[in-house]
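Morning F.,

Quick status update on the modeling queue. The single chain you submitted on Monday has been processed. Sequence for confirmation:
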Amino acid sequence: MLSKKMEKALNEQINKEMYSSYLYLSMVAYFESLNLPGFSQWMRVQTQEELFHGMKIYDHINQRGGRVVLKAIDAPVTEWASPLAAFEAAYDHEKFITNSINKLVDLARTEHDHATDIFLQWYVTEQIEEEMNADTISRQLKLAGESPNALLMLDRELGARVFTMPAQTGQA
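Structure tokens below.
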């Protein structure tokens, strides 16, 4: 059974994950407005991943006898100065989420909630990949500079990304 403190913190994390999905969906719209379908596709996949992350926590709360309480999702930013600025914002956001996950792990350990601690390790590992992906693309965009050819090549590469349902490990 989840402690009330852990339940509340996990519900807050669901909200953060849903906001992440909404933020990346906003980036989909931004990239579509720039006629960059590959960037848009990459962010569509990111949107789906974040929704999956939120639902995974949702299921964990229910499996542990807790109560999911959904709250309003804040409106995301809708404009960025450039594709680079959008990916830098994504990278900053992923660092924020990593910090939030780390605090959840700390809380699970303080609450002696071993099941949630184990469950959250999947997110700890996932956040390494999330940060790395956003940082890598940011750095590639910096290398591309003002080259439209490089931007279009990167757009083509990013368009190949597809959503793959992550393995169901770490379930309580």
